[in-house]
Amino acid sequence: RGEAPVLELASVSAAYGPFRALFDVSLTLARGEALALVGSNGAGKTTVARVVSGLVTPSAGRVLVDGADLTAARAKPYHFARAGIAHATEGRSVFATLSVEENLTLSFRRARGRGGVRGGLELAYEAFPVLGRRRKQLAGTMSGGEQRMLSMARVLVEKPKVLVADELSLGLAPKIVGELYASLARLRAEGVSLLIVEQHVGHALRLCDRVAVLGHGHVTWSGPAAEATGIVTRAFAPAG
Ligand code: ATP
Q1: Helices then strands (H, E): number in the chain?
Q2: Is the CB of 121 under 6 A from ligand 1?
Q3: Which tens digit of pLDDT belongs to each residue from 202-221?
Q4: In ligand 1, which atom is closest to the CA atom of 167?
């Protein structure tokens, strides 16, 4: 519909020292669209996620958010965050020595101002009732799955333009994975674009519109999720 993509990777290459991890990777994400990034171990999925959130600077190519070239601006990760990119990973973004409610309050105050805290807490506890029941518990003593819900609750309320979710379900019980995916679907319905890196391809394919397959740092296939099932099964060797 002629709308500029929210996120565009244009011919991105990236390396770790002498090791070249990405070759000429091009991807786009429209507003409210969900893209699953799949591929075997070491294919470069996490590296793409790091490029999108500014943690890895491409050696060639460009990263554009809403048409603005962040590569040319030599943007740091916090510039990417300010431009609307959120990176959800395993609970590493929670403050271990603060309670659940203190963690949420801090980030809602930053995102919505003092007046937005109460509404944010209501939204977060509605999406993840377990957080409401454990609001006084120190975040560092929560289980891995609970900590990931805590980071997701923050993302849910902050409403970024793009959420990069890297292996969000790794090692979690199916019920918790289900809750996390329900909250991803809710975010998407609110117009947030999703880049999903996931070993649980089934969940990712149900949620996503499009799929890109990475192999040895190259995009080897991309297209609608509905056409991806056979291709993904061949490209991807599930562990266990
Ligand atoms: P997995 O599914 O196993 O997590 P991936 O597709 O996410 O794999 P990446 O983590 O992006 O793959 O890694 C791509 C390649 O880059 C791998 O060969 C990896 O060993 C290498 N690599 C990743 N991070 C670094 C680093 N910090 N230093 C050196 N090499 C790295």
Answers
A1: 9, 10
A2: no
A3: 888 889 999 999 999 999 99
A4: 4
pTM metric for this prediction: 0.88
**b/e sequence 139-169, b meaning 16+ C-beta within 10 Å:** beebeebbbbbbbbbbbbbbebbbbbbbbbb
Distances (CA, A) of 7 to 38, 100, 205: 18, 31, 20
Q: Determine if ligand 1 sits within 6 Å of the CB of residue 83.
A: no
For a substitution probing ligand 1, which of 38, 46, 56, 166 has the most ligand atoms within 8 Å of its CB?
46
Does any ligand 1 atom lie closer than 6 A to the CB of residue 180?
A: no
Chain centroid to CA 16: 22
> Hey, what are 112's tokens?
């919505």
Cβ of 44 below 6 Å from ligand 1 = yes
What are 29's two structure tokens?
């994400």
